[in-house]
């Protein structure tokens, strides 16, 4: 692991800390590739049941994620700029070796940076909690929206920034903002490009909780550890259902829910959880 991303695991909870203070924790260098690789590894590790992401907002950094590293774009925009070359060449989003897109396939790739979002979305089949302890802007909005649950500090500000910079939204920002906040609020946020406070983000549905500054990670870990005490296959089934509900028809969602029930009804954990419920005792769950 590089010095820009730290990973720790305790009591079935993994904490990913982005640590790029000199670049204000922007999504540059090899950071996105590492986040993708680490999420895939944590997904395969059954001892990890919940994932928390946070950022180092000391040492001069003020953002949880401001999106792209502006230093990597400076002097490269304008007539003749080729976003495909910039993306795959590493200017915008760093090392893309893990994307598995060959030089020839890149010519037909319709997704660009969106490939990161789809791969992360597919990898994150466990509850993920964004411990948002600094400002969020640009592609960071999409990165936050990717999580299952979001907790923000009371002074945190959210800003789309795309319109102000003359760009269109990327990294799934328009998708997640619209899904979480609704069309009207998303239009106001993205089009007018005004900063949104943590409280306004909570009222709009973009974040789940607002907590005092300095206590964001503490609250996120409490939620994570509470979730980690639950049957892990039930957690997976719930995340699977929530993800499916974003795009499924009712019939497709009912089919998914029944598939979840068929799987979870036949687990040791379901029997243990039902017994704990009957006897009002605390159950122990092994993920089988």
From TrEMBL:
- Annotated Gene3D superfamilies: 2-enoyl-CoA Hydratase, Chain A, domain 1
Q: Which GO terms describe its biological process?
A: fatty acid beta-oxidation
Which GO MF terms does the UniProt record name? catalytic activity
Q: Which InterPro entries match?
A: ClpP/crotonase-like_dom_sf (IPR029045), Enoyl-CoA_hydra/iso (IPR001753)
**In this record, what's one Pfam family?**
ECH_1
Q: PANTHER family, alphabetically? A: 1,2-EPOXYPHENYLACETYL-COA ISOMERASE, ENOYL-COA HYDRATASE-RELATED
Name of this protein: Enoyl-CoA hydratase
Native source species: Rhodococcus opacus
Q: Specify the taxonomic lineage.
A: Bacteria, Bacillati, Actinomycetota, Actinomycetes, Mycobacteriales
